[in-house]
Specification:
By secondary structure, the protein is mostly helical. The protein has five helices and no strands. One of its GO terms (molecular function) is sequence-specific DNA binding.
């Protein structure tokens, strides 16, 4: 059980530094990342979470977020 505790402690520490690394770990291969997507993880989930948790976006930032969401939707549909 101590291994699980250590794993989640390190994961929480990493989330404080850079939460997006948890959603798309750079050490995974493209194949492994595709398995995350096929297994139910979609990039748009991260964008929705950011959109819901940050309320003080500027107009320009909101436009950029919308553009990224549109590109992500198109890329997910292609897959």
């Amino acid at each position: 059980m101590s291994h699980y505790q250590q794993y989640f402690t390190e994961k929480a520490r990493m989330a404080i530094k850079d939460m997006f690394v948890l959603f798309s770990p750079p050490w995974l291969s493209s194949f492994e990342k595709s398995l995350l997507w096929l297994g139910g993880f979609k990039s748009l989930m991260v964008l929705r979470m950011v959109d819901n948790s940050i309320e003080d976006l500027t107009v320009e930032q909101a436009k950029e977020m919308d553009a990224v969401k549109g590109e992500t939707r198109r890329a997910e549909q292609e897959l």
